Every structure is written in structure tokens, then in C-alpha cells.
């Protein structure tokens, strides 16, 4: 299938991109890696009048450390995020989540900014961003502002990003030394997550000092499992299962062709237990072989 | 209509293309490179896989149905037709009976070339995961996995003699 | 004398001749073919599952940029013809009129409603949005059992019913076995089971494409089809264009699996439009269009009753099927379940058998042949219920099969369904498969995991299958009311230099016929493998044939080829005798040459004979100077490949995820022409069988929208989802054809699905689970465990 016609601009600075968006209103779409947008255009589920391609803006690429924050440019690809040593050391969860998106080709083109702005409830990076208390820097006509990841995701495919704003970078508080695990169950290797759980754990003498846990596809936006986190504080290996029992609290999982809400609720608990135990180093592997269909 | 300059299989082309033109349609309809095919609408099947340099000039496997031709402006693209015909991966696909109908084959071969550039000695598991973005309905993948292992061994044994090295520098530069 | 071919070609793992252009992208898919003046066709499709069309207005589309023409169904009414079903299985079968472009009513989402022709594809697609259609929605019926209930909405109001047909086979009536009522009365064990064959999508990788070039005198069609010959016949029969004025070319075709065993609305529409505007037009579908318009497979409810004694002997089997036809009848839609009717008894000596199938119309895409067509369904059901019998009796599943299968010394064996199985050795294949698999060790591991309460349980699944291949003896097809025969044709032309051109009526699309046929000819005529050219897939060069489906190509077409070679040999022997100045009776074909018996150095090769025939200077009196021949083979009987597939799965009882741990199979496909190709067919077949067992399902919402309309939602497994398979063979030659071949195209698909599902259920039996509906997704496994838990509580 072929997209409907659109106008196309390729700015070289963020300001130019913002200017291009200004005035176009809902008729403009930002093109990042294109791996969410182009299939939608090809199926003619959307027909924007203008595409603003961020591919020419060098400042949006790359990873750097800025004080206590890991900063990832919005146009950094999933492959770059997954393979970057600074990301692996300071936000391992982000690297793991990026590594299990789609397939190699998708990871070569898809970008962190594109994934976050697309806000698919089954997306992996939004959950990692929420788990890690990331902050998203966006640029608009009146300058730049910072939005907390937990406030960025508003609803299904809906974010706090305004039509005339561009996502510039993701700032993740560096958590060096934390254990992390992203546990995902999907119908096939390539498929979106049925449910996934992102866990990052600060280990403290064989127990859990602090834990961050967030859930993928358990509602319209990523869900931070705060009850689980509270129950995990100070927990040892024997405390994980009970804490994971709180995983589904406050969630509203969908029922669709992939799975029912009831199954998702069950899966959230199992995967939370496993992800936390892995992140905490309580088990070396999940205790079960990794099905080819999943990426645990 | 935007103008683009793209190097495809070693030849530089400059064309005016409608912005909505997909890279795969540019290759097929504008350049006559019909070796690269379209199998789906949603970037799942991988039949359209080609190598395209990234912003840093490194060739990467991409799905050309999910790239606009305008996004390829200034890049170098290698299709199955630019691989030289006797690339170790092409040879191994033949020798291992890694194709039946052959429709997925160009994309599968390009995905394998891409994988082997990153990982010259992949395990079976790594090959299977590395090719997860390419669907084949005929072979059950087993002979494809064998072929990629064979090709990897061949390319490790004689890296200099990889036939695309001289013919197509785009296809094999390292990361 | 030139060199002769010492080594036999048949049985060699020859690398394929087909590969060279495919690995280089030098391909001729229909979509790659262009002709001068070619225009592009796009099709507007119904968004409704059932609606009356009250108005179609294409005038705005005609004003859209680059548009050359636009038509409604009414515009093409006099040209487009109808789509025919070739298999009226009963005299009273309901066969609704099926027009390529709908005129008054649409009956499934995706049905073609109007078309646009433009200079380029993008413009054609753009213009579709300008077409105005008024629909009056009608009630939708999707569920087969609801469709059969009184007062259900009717898919075809004029038919007065959603029932297409009911077809019955009863062994007592047919005289091929006993009465199931008596079996029921005397049964010590009665098992009733319902299995659901979910709807599948063939998912060939090459989307369908058709190019029609109306020349001055004749019309050429390139199509991504499995059946160029049948296509030509049907186009002629339904549009009135004389058959000899139609040329059909199936160029490179990217897979079919039965999905391109079809006469499609798109082909008929393109044919009509090209004639209407007198310009070449090409149509290539998007994947979404493949999903909603190309036929689907399976979608059958299977109700089985098995009668047995407590020693494990099966005494009778009743099968009642409800088969979803979809909204219309495709080429062989109603006949697909009948191909399974003779296979439910499988490899077992079942004394009494009754089969009944009811076809039902629903507001869904039509179903038709998909790899195995009827036989995978049959094999799945019988192999599942044999496992249940074993569980019921506390026996090993292999032992239950052993007690019932036909022993190798009992061949030829006439089954309760009336077929004569010529050969087989189930004991040998099973024994070999169990060793390859490590059956006893895996059972021991299973016991250990059960005892330790491991959350990951091990399951072992067995499938001992046979299938009827070599479709088909024409008389038997006639008896089943099929509209054509089952023969196949071949032609051999020996060129002056001794090279050989072979024309086959089969139409390969990945199977490797060019390579395998070359091997056959090399042995038959004593020429090098490289000296054989195989022509196919073009009705101008290959005017006679019945194409490729149903694992028939080798077992029918390959045999026809061997017969044609035999005729060449017969004539060559006469020439050789003449040249060697001896009696033809003294000339034998040995070691690749025609030799004088007792004086093997006195010999002539085919090349030498070909030259002599070409010059025609010195031939036997009255002999025509050619070395060409034609042969048509109409088999007397089906062939019956068989084998044993074993699958071990690990089931994560917490998440429900299934991982194939080990898969081993031993297939007996008779004489093997090329082991490489056979292995490839088994691999691909098994992968598709696993696809049905674990991953694939076409799903509709309650309005009749296909929710799985892309490869993102219809989950075809990738390399990362599948294991490696251990394959091996036994070789029991067929006795019903001179090559001893049986066919291998569908074996893997038929065998694998029950092996995998039996393994999943086996893993969960200690929890009280005796069924997991397909596909056995993590959720379905978890649900089965939940239900068993609730039932126990």
C-alpha cells in the first residue's frame, strides 16, 4: 500500500522543526524513525498533510552523561540505545527494553523519541522510561519544557506532547550498579508485548534496597507498580513472590485478540516476580527456559 | 517534489520523487531494481530488506518498505542485486537448499549479511534471533540457519576474498 | 562415443537449478513483469460483512489525477463472467452465483465492489477514496452453528438456507466395513470429543498479482497462480473467450500452499477490465487484501465418537464435521473436507466407520485448499483421540497405535473407507523415530519433572500419520463429482545435439520440479543432469496439464515424465539397433547407453542417436525423424506416504508458554528423487503444522471484520519461534507407480500439528487437562489449567 500524498520538510535544527510544525496544527506529523508512522500511513489509517522529518537534526542523536543524568537524544535508534555502554551501565533497563523491540531492521531505524511519542501501550520503551523516572525534554514555540515520564503518557497513543512540540531528549537519572530485568511475553518473537514487566533493583546486602517496577500493556499507559515497590523494600528472596502479588493493583489491562484482561492480570504477577528476582540477582535465569517466543 | 541523491549498488542516482514514495518503490519503479520485493504492509515480513548506511555511514539492514525514499537522500543502499552474485551468503543459500519459492530470499540474504557484519560467528540461537524480522513460509528456516552458519565460517576463513568487498564496499564495511 | 552417465541421478542430493536467479534477485514475479502501455488496477473492497449495495458512483474517481477508467460491477456485467466451483459434492448442493465484482450485495469484508485504472498504482489507490458507495447493512452471521439454527440471517437469501450440503460416507452402506451402531452397542469404551480446526491463512510470501495483456488476436495473462492450465480452461468456460485465444503464464510464483489453487475474483476482474479498455492492466494486492480476499483454510468443527475395547482395540469411529465454506464457494471449497473423509481411519484397522460433513455459509472470506486440505484435519482428530484413548486406558500412546495399525505384512490393505493402501511400514518408521527422538529418556525426564512438581512440565506427543497423495485417479474424482480429472501430462523433446527439453504440466512454485525432473530424465535417458531443460507454467509451451497441488506433481507428473522418456527410449532402441546392425531385441538400455546385449562396448548414446535422427540419412524404413514423445499418466490409485513424528514440549505452567524442546520425524515417502528437496519439504511442512498448533488463527470480530488482517496480527512464526528438526526416512516404494514415489509436499504439515498439541496436552494431563484448543497460545494453556483447577475444586 502507498501513503496518501503529503508535503515534506527536513529541518536541520530543532527550532526549524518547531517552526515547521507551528501553524500546521493537527495536519502535521513528526517523522522520526518512521517505524510506527509509516505503516499507519501505508494502511491509510492517517493522512497528514505535512511530515516534518527529524532525520536531519544532528543534535537529536546520541547518548551522553550530564551530571547524574543519562541523556539520550530523541533520534537515537533502538540499536544504538541497546548497544551503548553508557546506557548499559547507567540505565540497563532501557538498554534491555530497546534490545527486545521488533527485530534488527526495526531497531536500526526506530528511535527512542519515536517510540515514546507514539505511546503504544504495548511499547517497551515507555515502560522503561516510567520505571526509571525519566524526564522528557520537549521543544515548542515558547521554548523547552521538561515533562516527567509518568505525566507524559496520557492515554492510548496519547502523550502530553502538543501538536507543535518536538521531543528532544530523554533524561534518565543514572542508576549505576542497579540490577535490571525486562521480562516480556509475546505471541511470537517479533510481536508486541502481551505483557511485560520492567524491574530495576538496588541491591543491598542480599536484600532489595530499592525497587522500581513498571508494567507494559496493563492499561492505556505504562503502569508504575508502586505497591510492589513498597512491599519490596528490604525484601529478601523469600519476599519477592508476596510483593509481586500486588502487581495488578491499579491496572486496567485490555482484552484483545492477543489475550484477555484476566490472563494479563495473572501474567503481570508472574512476570513481576521473575523480573524482580532476576534484577535482584536472586536467580541467575528465570528458573525456566526462555521460550523462543519471549525475550525473558 | 523533493530531489534525492542516492547511491544504489555502487551507482549514484539523482531523482525527483514524490515525498510519499517508499524506498522499495523507488528501487523497483524508478531504478528497475526489482530484485527487492514487497511482502506486507506492516514491516513484518522483511522481504524488502536492503542495506542502507546510517547517519554515521555504517550499512545497516533496513526494511525498505518502511523507509521513505527521501529518507535515503545522501545514503548508500545495497540491494540483493549489488551483492555480486557469488557472495558467501548467496552461495551458502544455494548449497544448503535454504530457499524454495525464493520470494523471501533477497530480504533473508540481506538480513543475514547485516547480521554477519555485527556478529561474524553467530550461534544457532543468535542466527534465529537475528533473522526474526524475516518471514519464510517454505523452508521452516532450518536450512537458512545452516546456510548462515556456513557463510559465516566461509567469511571468517577468507574475509579478504568476500566477493562483495571490491565490488561493493558499501556492503561489508565494519562497525 | 561420448561419455555416459555412470552414477544414478535419482536419489542424489542435487543442488537446485532453480536457485541461481532467485539468490541474485533476477526474478520474474508477476509484479516484476511489465508490458508496453501497461496500466494499474486498484480495487475498492467492501467494509461490510453483509450489505445491500444501493448505489455505486465512480464519477469522482474518474476525475482523479492520472485515472484512465473506473468501473462498477454493473459496468462489467456483460464481460466479467462468474467464478465457478469445480466440485459440486452433492446433487442438491447450494452453489450461489459468485460474481467477481459485486453488483447488488456484498457478503464478506473485502469483497470487490468497484475498480479504478490509472497510469500508476499510487494514483489508482488515491482514486479509490473518491468512489461513493451506499450500503444498506444486512444482518451478519459468522458462527457456523448459529448459521444452521432456525431463523438465522441468511448469507444468500435466495438459497433459503445457510446449509451448503451434507455429504455422508457409511462403511456399512458402502460395503467396506461394519455398522457403527453395532460398534456403539458393543463398545467397552466410548470417547466423545469435539476438536476445532481454527481458520488459517495460507500466508504465501508473494502477494497475488495478475497482469492481463489483451493483444490484437489473443490475450496473455501472467498470474501468481498454482494452476495456469485450470485457469485458462475456466477463464474460457466462464467468459466465452475461446480457450486457444488465452495464454496463461505462471512465471516465478512465490509459494502457494493451496492458497493459489484458486480462480480468483482479481484475475477475472483484471481480465474483464483489460478487455473492456483494450489496454494491459496489472493488479497486485496489498497484504491486507491477501488476508481478506485470498481464501482461508481449515475452519471445521469436528465431533468424533470412538468406540473401543479395554485392550485398546478400536472398534468403530463416527465423525461429524461442520465445515465453514465462507460466503462463497471457491474452486474446490466444498470438496476439501471430503479429501479428509477417507483419512480419519488413518493407519488403523477400524472395522466400522461413518463420516458426515455439513458445509455452512457465513459472512466470512471463503475457505478452500490449504496445505493438506482435509487430511491435516482428519489426522489431527484421529491422532488426538488415539492419545485420549491411551490416557483413558492408562496405556502408552505408541502402544495404543501399535495395537491398531496395519502391520507391514498386511499390505496391500483395503481400509474401512474403501481405499487400498499399497505399501507401508509403520513399525519401522515408528521404531526409527523413537530412537532418534530418545523416547524412553524423555519419558523418564517427564516422570522426574512430574514427581518434583516442576513448574515447567515436559510433554511428549506422537503422530503416526498417512495421507492420500498423487491426486488423483480420474475415475475416483468422477465418483466424487469433481469437475476435472487427475491425470498429468509430460512431453520430451530430444534436440539434435542430444540435449533434452522436457515440458511438464505441473506448475512449480518452490517445489524444485526443474531439478527433480532433470534427475528423472537423466536416468531415464542416460543424459547428464545439466543437459535437461524443464519447461513449465506457460500454456503456450506447455498446453496440457493439471498443475500443482495435493502432493501430486511427482507421483502423477513425474510418472508421466518417466513414461514419456520410456517412449523415447523405445524408439531410440530401434534407431540404435539399426545403427549397430542388430535386432532391436538384442539392444538394451544399460549404464546410460543403448548396448548390444553381451557386447556392451557396442553402444550408442542418446546424443549419437539424436544426431542420426536429426540428419535422418539412415533411419529404419518408415520411421518418422524425431525423438519426441508425449505421455499422460492417470494413476490407478492414490499413493500413501506415512511416517511418525514425535514432539517434546516444555510447558511453563505459570505463564502458559510452550517451547518445543525436541522434534524428530521419520517419513516414508517412497522412492526419493532428491533427498535435499524432500528434507526441505518436511522442514517447511512441519513449520506450518507448528504454526497451526501454536501460533496462527484468523479472527473476526462480531461485525465480521477480520482482526488479523496483517502479518502483525496473524502471527506466522519466524526463525526465532521455531526449533531445529531431526528428520530421517524409511523408504518403502509405492507399488502403484513405476517410480515407486508417493509425494512429500503435505506430509510435514499433516503430521506436525497433532504431534505438537498431543505433546502440550500430555504435559498437562496430571493437572486434569485433556484438551487445549488451537492455537495453543500461552493464554489458552493457562485457561485450560484454570478450568481443570476449577473442575477439580
Question: What would you say this structure looks like, in words?
Answer:
- The complex is a heterotrimer of chains A (296), B (175) and C (793).
- With 296 residues, chain A is an alpha+beta fold.
- Chain A contains twelve helices and 14 strands.
- Chain A has helices at 14-21, 37-42, 78-83, 85-90, 92-99, 104-109, 112-118, 125-131, 149-152, 226-232, 240-244, 261-279; strands spanning 7-9, 28-31, 50-53, 63-66, 69-73, 135-140, 143-148, 153-155, 158-159, 166-173, 179-186, 193-204, 207-216, 223-224.
- A five-stranded antiparallel β-sheet of chain A has the order 4-5-10-6-7, with helices on both faces.
- In chain A, helix 5 (92-99) runs antiparallel to helix 8.
- The radius of gyration of chain A is 19 Å and the shape is globular.
- Mean pLDDT of chain A is 94; it is low at 287-296.
- By secondary structure, chain B is an alpha+beta fold.
- Chain B is built from seven helices and five strands.
- Chain B has helices at 23-30, 88-95, 105-118, 124-130, 142-157, 164-167, 169-172, and strands spanning 3-8, 11-16, 49-53, 59-63, 76-78.
- Chain C is α+β, with helices and mostly antiparallel strands.
- The interface between A and C is medium-sized, with 33 and 37 residues.
Protein topology:
The complex is a heterotrimer of chains A (296), B (175) and C (793).
Chain A: E1 7-9, H1 14-21, E2 28-31, H2 37-42, E3 50-53, E4 63-66, E5 69-73, H3 78-83, H4 85-90, H5 92-99, H6 104-109, H7 112-118, H8 125-131, E6 135-140, E7 143-148, H9 149-152, E8 153-155, E9 158-159, E10 166-173, E11 179-186, E12 193-204, E13 207-216, E14 223-224, H10 226-232, H11 240-244, H12 261-279
Parallel strand pairs in A: 1-3, 2-3
Antiparallel strand pairs in A: 4-5, 5-10, 6-7, 6-10, 8-9, 11-12, 12-13, 13-14
Chain B: E1 3-8, E2 11-16, H1 23-30, E3 49-53, E4 59-63, E5 76-78, H2 88-95, H3 105-118, H4 124-130, H5 142-157, H6 164-167, H7 169-172
Parallel strand pairs in B: 1-5
Antiparallel strand pairs in B: 1-2, 3-4, 3-5
Chain C: H1 19-22, E1 39-45, E2 51-57, H2 59-62, E3 67-72, E4 105-106, E5 112-118, H3 121-128, E6 132-137, H4 144-148, E7 163-170, H5 171-174, H6 180-185, E8 189-200, E9 209-214, E10 219-223, H7 228-239, E11 246-249, H8 265-277, E12 281-284, H9 287-293, E13 297-308, E14 314-326, H10 336-341, E15 353-361, H11 375-393, H12 397-404, E16 413-414, E17 420-421, H13 426-437, H14 439-452, E18 456-466, H15 474-479, E19 488-494, E20 500-504, H16 513-525, E21 532-535, H17 553-580, E22 587-590, E23 593-596, E24 599-604, H18 606-615, E25 628-633, E26 642-652, E27 658-668, H19 675-695, E28 726-729, H20 747-764, H21 778-792
Parallel strand pairs in C: 1-12, 10-11, 14-15, 20-21, 27-28
Antiparallel strand pairs in C: 1-5, 2-4, 2-6, 3-5, 7-15, 8-13, 9-10, 9-12, 13-14, 16-17, 18-26, 19-20, 19-25, 22-23, 23-24, 26-27
